[in-house]
Amino acid sequence: MAAEAPKMYYRMLGNTGLAVSVLSYGFWATFGVKDTLREQDGINMAKDCLRLARKAGVNCFDNAEVYGNPSGEAERIMGEALAQLRQEDAQLWRRSALVITTKLFWCAQGDEGTVNEKGLSRKHINEGIDASLKRLQLDYVDLVFCHRPDAHTPTETVVQAMTDLVRSGKATAWGTSEWSAQQITEAYFIAQRGGMIAPAFEQPQYNMMHRERFEKEYFPLYRQPYNIGTTIWSPLASGLLTGKYKDGIPEDSRLAQKGYEWLVKKLDAWKEDGSLDKVQKLADFAEKEFQCSTSQLALAWCLKNKNVTTVLLGATKTEQLEENLGALPVLLKMTDDHMDKIDEILGNKPEPWLNQQRPIDLI
Amino acid sequence: MAAEAPKMYYRMLGNTGLAVSVLSYGFWATFGVKDTLREQDGINMAKDCLRLARKAGVNCFDNAEVYGNPSGEAERIMGEALAQLRQEDAQLWRRSALVITTKLFWCAQGDEGTVNEKGLSRKHINEGIDASLKRLQLDYVDLVFCHRPDAHTPTETVVQAMTDLVRSGKATAWGTSEWSAQQITEAYFIAQRGGMIAPAFEQPQYNMMHRERFEKEYFPLYRQPYNIGTTIWSPLASGLLTGKYKDGIPEDSRLAQKGYEWLVKKLDAWKEDGSLDKVQKLADFAEKEFQCSTSQLALAWCLKNKNVTTVLLGATKTEQLEENLGALPVLLKMTDDHMDKIDEILGNKPEPWLNQQRPIDLI
Amino acid sequence: MAAEAPKMYYRMLGNTGLAVSVLSYGFWATFGVKDTLREQDGINMAKDCLRLARKAGVNCFDNAEVYGNPSGEAERIMGEALAQLRQEDAQLWRRSALVITTKLFWCAQGDEGTVNEKGLSRKHINEGIDASLKRLQLDYVDLVFCHRPDAHTPTETVVQAMTDLVRSGKATAWGTSEWSAQQITEAYFIAQRGGMIAPAFEQPQYNMMHRERFEKEYFPLYRQPYNIGTTIWSPLASGLLTGKYKDGIPEDSRLAQKGYEWLVKKLDAWKEDGSLDKVQKLADFAEKEFQCSTSQLALAWCLKNKNVTTVLLGATKTEQLEENLGALPVLLKMTDDHMDKIDEILGNKPEPWLNQQRPIDLI
Amino acid sequence: MAAEAPKMYYRMLGNTGLAVSVLSYGFWATFGVKDTLREQDGINMAKDCLRLARKAGVNCFDNAEVYGNPSGEAERIMGEALAQLRQEDAQLWRRSALVITTKLFWCAQGDEGTVNEKGLSRKHINEGIDASLKRLQLDYVDLVFCHRPDAHTPTETVVQAMTDLVRSGKATAWGTSEWSAQQITEAYFIAQRGGMIAPAFEQPQYNMMHRERFEKEYFPLYRQPYNIGTTIWSPLASGLLTGKYKDGIPEDSRLAQKGYEWLVKKLDAWKEDGSLDKVQKLADFAEKEFQCSTSQLALAWCLKNKNVTTVLLGATKTEQLEENLGALPVLLKMTDDHMDKIDEILGNKPEPWLNQQRPIDLI
């Protein structure tokens, strides 16, 4: 289905004025695995994926200080890969054409990190961004995220530090990841009250199996004055929606790796709660309606929601990435009727955000 | 246990500067039942309950434009009862000693209500408060609630109208009921930005069986700068926590009445989800630890949470009310250890509000 | 086509929280013609139209201090008619179900008006509203308009006076009529800056022949933060779009009356600029596609634009009003394709608001 | 007439505190024509014009990232020319004596520009100004313009980015070009609300043939609190007002060049709509009253409007520039009576901004 690279489409990311390709490329759990790869092998794999994505029209590349093993490696490898790619084709990889992100909260020190090397103090934000930019070999990122809320740092302190980070030119906009709707609202108004810069986007988990927060809690944030854009992670529900776990854990999957015991545990839960049955039904539906894979259906389904700005693809192999890019033609064919049928299979559609306590026949 | 009227205690209601008795008396589903009672009989029952509550130190009396059958009757009866009580004992019932509330959203027109006779437009807020005050025979209420969020009226419009209602002297403070944390946060900041009056309290459902929103979603609102007070409804979970449904529906309970089919349905659900079993365990615990009823335990448990300002009692018979007031001595004996044991029985303690992504050994 | 009264639909009027019927009834040029009618005859005609409109679901009734001959008569007659109708059917005509408007700028003194009896000084706003309410026999109107911008009164002064008028309870929201987009924007921000109430709606001329301002200049105002609602006047272009002038001036039309020389002049212009030819084509299109009248097509066309909240109908005869109400079923059948064909006939579609200097393939 | 360099006059540019010569020199469509000129020839021509203008007292030099062919060349050539001129005469060309501008929106990548390389996102504003400053060989420009409104970037985002650009010292003030009055008003108030820097000037098209927007739509902006300055482009209406097209297209005019087909088309329109006749009358009037050229009359006419801060001259040859500078003595002789006569010839005087709905005999 994705034999030919599909035309790329864009969505405006919240209030940033930036157009982001609806499919983005994320460096989570990718390449920065020092112990299993020789240096340049990892870089080459990254370059292959980056090249494929860029040529398909992807303009957004997502990273975080904590990504990679050890932390920081994902940024280092992406930075080196981009530098090498710019040597290959300066025009395709010129800085102004790319939207590059990082996320700050957990440091690149991993378990060595002491009490002030994590979180959202101005100290860590300042130290974190400088270390990230160095690893990325960049003067600035386009988007910087607060990777989690920090229970120990008041929102006003965070907004001040993020504002100054943007004003200093080290990022062009800032956002949040896995903050509550209440926290984002608070940050928005604290920024506005103080003549500071409000968060413009959020990076939440969103997929067919995990809908409540994205569809319900965040709902008011997609509207004015917040107009929050979203870069969603885990669109394939940790791989569940690839269908690859239907018959147990494949040997080459992440689940077979050390450090992924949590995923194995999850798999057991999926079996028990009927998720695997749903995946089978989705696979049949995908095949019958679109002759596409379950992954492609799952990715297209995310994008059918206009509140999703871009879906992060986390593939580490070019074949997998190419397959994922094939979600775009599926999206173009998907109707509201298809969405209703998928909702029937999923059986987890959240209630509408507001109770209709005041019904009116609007036209 | 409550043979002697217990001393009353108070809590400050958010930022209002008002001290509210920790047990309040609510007029929901009470007395305004035109078809089953002769006029003065209803008023007399109301007076008996009001007199008992007041003498026990209750100073807060809760109502809403929509309460009663037909809507508006609960206010009318309370208004008339208060007027008659003031004739009996002017000192006890003087206006300045009482905290009287109403709630606006659904009108007193019931099903006849047209599109603009519900909701939170300034038109309905203005028309609603005037009609309520007339029924209550009052010049002002102390607390006025937005009884629900209104999907059709922007928050700024609501805050303006509520602010002007307070400024006009028709209420002394305003709050919300069943708004989301995000909506309350938005209202707070919109008020602050515009030099207007912020909502100071919320009336949510809260009881042993329904904890998530109160304990988790609202958590940040109990702190600065919001400092939201709460007047909680359904502390006995629609009667479940009285223990009276353990052996089916008693004939004289609300559930036997027309219009309460939803409660019957709920009862079935309680059976199935194990709630009735938990109630049995709570009953045993209450008896063993405090020689009190399940209701008293449940009410005291609510008040043990310092974020509860006052618990609304909805009794329609004096015996029932007297029994409920007996929760106060239980509260005085309740320890953190008791609370832990109750949590074990309930098994529904919400996760802490913020994931501890940045653990620090604080002392 | 309108043999049976059509079901009514509503639109939310800007930020007011008020639901307004998509067809409203306006008192411009109606009834207040003292010299040609005996008092009660005029009131009866008004009552017939009001009754018909209300029974068809119309909930919004538009007036202005300057309407009628002499000025003020339209309000006086509507006030008396409403009072009499409320005697007939208190439920149908209860105040809270109605959205009643007036507009202030030109006084009810007509040519006798001295320099401070017109305009938007606080003096005239205060004096004007009190006189209007007296004529209307009301305590408050729901909507009050600044009937024109006042070159002699700074916007801040106007916003203050209108805000206080709303806060005093004499109106529940305020708006503008024939202000420029720049003026409305200025008023919005001055209100927000000062913790005052912003204008929530505008009453502009809008019809098939007069589109530029509504579709282009006002375009940004329909969006956040302004969210301006509109109550449009002259939807039939001073009668041109009824088709009745195709063969000259009918004797019973307004154009035959003294004081309507401007309309006669307009008619000449319509002949010359090809408007009458377009009307003929529209009549054919209406007949062929919807078997409806040109008026019904023209009214439905207005409502097809979602930025129109309500269309003011100015009929003075019940037959004419009934005919106009028949626009609603036409609206339900109208497609985007129909709109394109009408645009072809009209040939006056404004350019899009913003030049697309930055084209992006959005999806 | 301009044998002797005329004394220069200045006007204050809005709220900037900067005095700008009433005639400025603009680099639109000039010099950056790589294919028709050898590098140093282009620079020399630029230097000749710059030298002439500067010696005549011009202190303002206008440019944009998009000017030149390819885009960016106009800035590069001006930058190099200024550097060389400073070698010639350090005193005359010292930085602090000059007011240098650029405009951001379309990038210097031309058709290669991808979705985020145009518009008014903070990313493009940051990247654009840095690229412009590099081409101009400067540390800062004095004035930076948003070259168009950006439909994809909220005004608040633009105001924040422009404010920070000024605060960073890369420009000393910012303005707009071809924004609507509504947009400028919005930007003004958003800036004020957030403690940010408001746009202080606008660069609109303005000439005898194109008056509506400048004289009517922008009218309120020339007054407090906006006090917008203007640097007007196309004062000679794409050459129409030079009179050179009266007898067809001269071979050496821009219209004979590829890429100017739009001008040829315009010329046809001018013939048809009577513009060429008006130009003839203006030529006669100029000769009779001032013994000056049509151009000089047209330029002086612009400056007679006190809301014009400076008129951009776009000449590419010194003779032409010298001729244009001769408008200044004409301006000194021009009376209101002359203006009335020119209005008679033009027949396009816009209605006054505000309808005089409230006429008062003011003195």
From TrEMBL, chains A, B, C, D:
Q: Name one GO molecular function term.
A: oxidoreductase activity
Q: Which residues cross the membrane?
A: 12-31
- One protein family per Pfam: Aldo_ket_red
Q: Which terms are listed as keywords in the entry?
A: Ion channel, Ion transport, Membrane, NADP, Oxidoreductase, Transmembrane, Transmembrane helix, Transport
UniProt-listed InterPro entries: K_chnl_volt-dep_bsu_KCNAB-rel, NAD(P)_OxRdtase_dom_sf, NADP_OxRdtase_dom
Q: Which domain of life is it from?
A: Eukaryota
Tell me where in this chain the NADP-dependent oxidoreductase domain is found.
Answer: 23-345
In the record, which residues are listed under signal peptide? none
Q: Which BP terms in the Gene Ontology apply to this protein?
A: monoatomic ion transmembrane transport
What does the sequence similarity comment in the record state about its family? Answer: Belongs to the shaker potassium channel beta subunit family.
Name of the featured protein: Voltage-gated potassium channel subunit beta-1
Q: What is the lineage of its organism?
A: Eukaryota, Sar, Stramenopiles, Bigyra, Labyrinthulomycetes
